[in-house]
C-alpha cells in the first residue's frame, strides 16, 4: 500500500544500561516518542531496495520542532538550574536552533538574545519571523567568525547590568546537548528492531555524537551516517569525536567506553555549492518525499541528507534485506524563507 505506515512498538528493554542518563536534569518540551513510519512510496519510487523508515523528529510540536528540541531540553535545564534569566545563542538568520532557543526562553520566562550572521531581512519570514514572535532580540554580525566574540561580549555586558546570561553554543552541540540523542536512541529501541543504518543531516555534530554514543551504549549494530551540509568530513569527524569523549565524562563512564562499536561516518559529497544552497539532488529529494509520502524536507539540511540516502539506494550500497532509518531532524519551516 502506498504511503507511510507506522511501525508497531516492540517490547521495551528490561534494564537501563545507563542509570546516570536518567539522572541528568531535563525539561519536558516535546511529546515522545516521535513516530517511526515506513516510507513505502519512496521505496516504490526507487524501484525497491531496502525497507526505508523515518523517525519523525519533525513532528515534535514545541517551537516548530526538530532536533534542537531534544538538545535544549538538557541544555536549558542546566541554564535554569543556574538561575539564568537570559539565553544567548547564535546561528544564521534562518537558524532552526535560534528559533527553538527563543521558544524555550519564552516558555520559561527568560529573555533571549540571538547573534545572527547575515543581513537583517527587510521582511522577516520563516525562522526569522518566529524569532521575533517568540520575543527574541537579534543582533546581526557580518560573518560566522564573529559570532563567538559577539556572544561573549553580550554576556559580559548583560552581567554588568545585573542580568544572569547563559551562553548556548551553536546548535546546542555540547556533550550535555548531545545526550538528547542518546535518550532518543533509548526511545528508538522501544519502537523497532535496530536498523542496519541511520542516515541523518549532521552539521554542528551534537545529533550525530548522541546517535553514535547511544547505539554503542545500547549495543546496537547500527551504522550512523551523517550527511554534512557545510563542513568537510574531516572537520565534522573531529567535532563528533570530541563530543563523544565529552559524553563519556558527562555520564561518568570509563575513558574509552564509547570508542568501540558501529561505525560513525560523515559524507560531505552532497554539500554542492555551499551551505544553504540547494542542489539538483536535494530538490529532487524534496519532491520525492512530498509527492510519495507527504513528508516535507527543508532545503538546507534534511533535503541534502535524503539526497544522499536516495543516491546510496540507487547505487546499491544497501542490501535489499537491510533496514535503513532516515532520522528527520526538522527545519521544514525554511521552505517558507
Secondary structure topology:
Elements: E1 4-6, H1 19-22, E2 36-39, H2 40-45, E3 51-56, H3 67-81, E4 86-92, H4 96-107, E5 111-117, H5 126-133, E6 137-141, H6 147-160, E7 165-167, H7 175-189, E8 197-201, H8 206-217, E9 223-227, H9 233-250, E10 264-267, H10 280-293, H11 302-314, E11 323-328
Parallel strand pairs: 3-11, 4-5, 4-7, 5-6, 8-9, 8-11, 9-10
Antiparallel strand pairs: 1-2, 2-3
Reported CATH architecture of the largest domain:
3-Layer(aba) Sandwich
What's the number of helices? Answer: 11
What's the multimeric state?
single chain
Task: Kindly state the number of beta strands.
Answer: 11
The radius of gyration computed from the alpha-carbon positions, rounded to a whole number of angstroms, is 19 Å
Q: Largest sheet, order of strands side by side?
A: 1-2-3-11-8-9-10
For the termini, the CA-CA separation is 34 Å
Main sheet record:
7 strands, mixed
Percentage of residues in DSSP E strands: 15-25%
The domain count comes to: 2
Question: How does the overall form come out from the CA principal axes?
Answer: globular
What is the highest CATH level, the class of the largest domain?
A: Alpha Beta
Fold-level CATH name of the largest domain? Rossmann fold
Determine the structural class based on helices, strands and strand pairing.
alpha/beta
Arithmetic mean of pLDDT: 94
Amino acid at each position: 500500500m502506498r504511503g507511510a505506515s507506522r511501525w508497531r512498538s516492540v517490547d521495551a528493554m528490561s534494564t537501563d544500561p545507563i542509570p546516570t542518563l536518567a539522572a541528568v536534569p531535563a525539561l519536558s518540551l516535546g511529546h515522545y516518542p516521535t513516530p517511526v513510519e515506513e516510507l513505502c512510496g519512496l521505496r516504490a519510487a526507487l524501484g525497491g531496495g531496502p525497507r526505508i523508515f523515518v523517525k519523525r523528529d519533525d513532528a515534535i510540536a514545541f517551537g516548530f520542532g526538530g532536533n534542537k528540541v531534544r538538545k535544549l531540553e538538557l541544555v536549558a535545564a542546566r541554564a535554569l538550574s543556574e538561575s539564568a534569566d537570559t539565553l544567548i545563542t547564535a546561528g544564521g538568520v534562518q537558524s532552526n536552533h535560534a528559533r527553538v532557543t527563543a521558544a524555550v526562553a519564552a516558555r520559561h520566562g527568560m529573555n533571549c538574545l540571538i547573534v545572527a550572521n547575515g543581513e537583517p531581512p527587510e521582511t522577516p519570514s520563516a525562522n526569522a519571523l518566529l524569532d521575533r514572535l517568540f520575543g527574541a532580540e537579534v543582533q546581526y554580525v557580518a560573518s560566522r567568525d564573529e559570532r563567538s566574540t559577539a556572544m561573549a561580549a553580550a554576556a559580559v555586558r548583560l552581567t554588568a547590568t545585573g542580568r544572569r546570561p547563559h551562553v548556548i553554543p551553536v546548535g546546542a552541540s555540547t556533550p550535555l546537548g548531545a545526550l538528547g540523542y542518546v535518550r532518543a536512541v533509548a526511545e528508538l529501541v522501544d519502537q523497532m528492531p535496530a536498523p542496519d543504518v541511520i542516515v541523518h543531516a549532521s552539521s554542528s555534530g551534537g545529533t550525530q555524537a548522541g546517535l553514535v554514543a547511544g547505539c554503542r551504549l545500547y549495543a546496537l549494530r547500527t551504522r550512523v551516517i551523517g550527511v554534512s551540509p557545510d563542513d568537510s568530513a574531516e572537520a565534522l569527524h573531529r567535532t563528533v569525536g570530541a563530543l563523544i569523549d565529552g559524553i563519556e565524562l558527562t555520564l561518568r563512564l570509563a575513558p574509552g567506553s564509547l570508542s568501540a562499536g558501529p561505525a560513525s561516518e560523515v559524507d560531505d559529497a552532497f554539500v554542492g555549492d555551499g551551505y544553504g544552497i540547494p542542489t539538483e539532488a536535494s530538490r529532487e529529494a524534496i519532491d520525492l518525499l512530498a509527492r510519495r509520502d507527504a513528508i516535507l524536507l527543508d532545503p538546507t539540511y534534511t533535503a541534502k541528507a535524503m539526497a544522499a540516502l536516495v543516491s546510496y539506494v540507487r547505487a546499491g550500497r544497501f542490501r535489499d534485506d537491510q533496514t535503513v532509518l532516515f532520522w528527520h531532524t526538522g527545519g521544514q519551516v525554511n521552505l517558507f524563507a
